[in-house]
Amino acid sequence: MVYPVLLCGGTGTRLWPLSRQSFPKQFVKLVGEESLFQASARRLSGPGFECPLVITSDGFRFIVTDQLADAGMVAAATLIEPDPRNTAPAVLCAALWLREKDPDALMLVAPSDHVLPDGPGFRSAVEAALSAALSGQIVTFGIAPTRAETGYGYLEFSSAACRTSGSPRPLRRFVEKPDAAEAERMLASGNYLWNAGIFLCSAQTVIAAFEVHAPEMIGPVEASLREASMDKLFTRLALAPWRDIRSISIDYAIMEKAANIAVMPYGGSWSDLGSWDAVWQGSQADAEGNVLSERALAIDCRQSMLRSETEGLEVVGIGLENIVAIATPDAVLIARRGEGQRVKEVVEILKARSAKQATSFNRDYRPWGWFESLALGLRFQVKRIVVKPGAALSLQSHHHRAEHWIVVQGTAKVTVDNEIRLLAENESTYIRLGAVHRLENPGKVPMILIEVQTGSYLGEDDIVRYEDIYARA
User: Fold this and answer.
1) Which residues contact 213 (CB under 8 A, 6 or more apart)?
2) Short-list 10, 6, 79, 88, CA closest to 49
3) Which end of the chain is more exposed for a tag (fewer CB within 10 A), N or C?
4) Which helix (DSSP H) or strand (DSSP E) does residue 433 occupy?
């Protein structure tokens, strides 16, 4: 059996404003009806695959659980990194965890934010690579290039014939992201594949590679895993030893140094969706080359992407060519296609200006559901709060604000000090400043209420928690 290892701790700023630190691209429905994370988990499931091992950060742990549940799946385990350290420590931690569970475990390490539309075709490639992985090879998957792409790393073979092989072939070398002229030369030679960053091997093979090429990482990662604590469904890696681990990618730490690397060619479609240009390339365009969302209109436009992420907001383009326009409730990006890699610059500038849009959405996701701010003034705020069936907010109080709750859909179970009552649609209640209160949804449909806050301070950190079913501090 193969254990998928899904890496999903990245913050994906290159697809801003749709991907942000608080809710990055792997959890967004960029193409299709599922998020990239859900599509990745589904692609690496079925006969021959165990439940996925997920490695993520603290802020995404409930998003991971909810999205897997929505896809009808569960994780074998979810490891919470206490601090981002790139992919090498995460992969080593996964290998150590798997070896403890199954000494002969095969692991298929994959980013959770890539697009591989042909799931059966990719699983066939994995099956063709199994024997090499079982023999002690680290099998990395190479994608047949379709253009002279400068945003990807490459894998070089000894001959062009290797590109179409139905089994893993020896790798000559890794090649960093090239300039345009070098990319054209490599494409013409036929000896190169794109490096997809996906690899298959046994857990023991990975650990042995670290023992040779990065031995200093093993002790801290082992200690962090050994001292980990269980938090509901999650395994929290210990912070103190994790701090001693250098931040480095698995490519630099192991792959570019190991001698036992083989490449499994894959001829199907693939994209890392690393920019809006890549999203445009991977989307279904109209006869003029335009990619439009449901709430977008193009008049005399060519080779452009127009996308609205807000109900009731129409994006209209007239006479545009090679333009990307992405509209969200609180930010709009307009750029020329080909400038997608510069979106990171925008995010850094917005951070320097302390703009909330740089990292956060107007909608905040919580394990019980989500909320969004509808209006904000000097001493008031109006929110829409959506609570999932059976979910409950923590038992809490506030030092600086009072709240009015009006139920607009479903039924709310409300606790205020020692009183518990049910509120139906069009009913309301008042939570005085300092009152101990809780909101629950006892029904079978999402419960929606409008909350009006009044007070001297309205920040989310004005919460004193007494009980929480999600074990939040």
Assistant:
1) 253, 254, 257, 258
2) 6
3) C
4) none
In eight-state DSSP terms, residue 29 is -
88, 107, 106, 86: which is closest to 5 by C-alpha? Answer: 107
Tens of pLDDT, residue by residue over 260-306, are 999 999 989 999 888 999 999 889 999 999 999 999 999 999 999 99
CA 279 to chain centre: 16
- Render pLDDT for 305-358 as a digit per residue (tens, 0 to 9): 999 998 899 999 999 999 999 999 999 999 999 888 899 999 999 999 999 999
- Contact between residue 21 and residue 11 where contact means Cβ atoms under 8 Å apart: yes
Q: Are strands 192-202 and 154-156 parallel, antiparallel or unpaired?
A: antiparallel
Host H or E run for residue 241: helix 239-242
E strands, 228-312, are: 229-231, 234-236, 261-266, 291-292, 296-299, 305-308
What's 20's DSSP letter? B
In the prediction, which pLDDT does 473 show? 66
pTM of the model: 0.90
- Catalogue all structural domains in the chain, each as residue range(s) with its CATH number: 2-266 (3.90.550.10), 276-342 (no CATH), 363-467 (2.60.120.10)
Phi-psi region of 221 (alpha: psi -120 to 50; beta: other; left: phi over 0): alpha
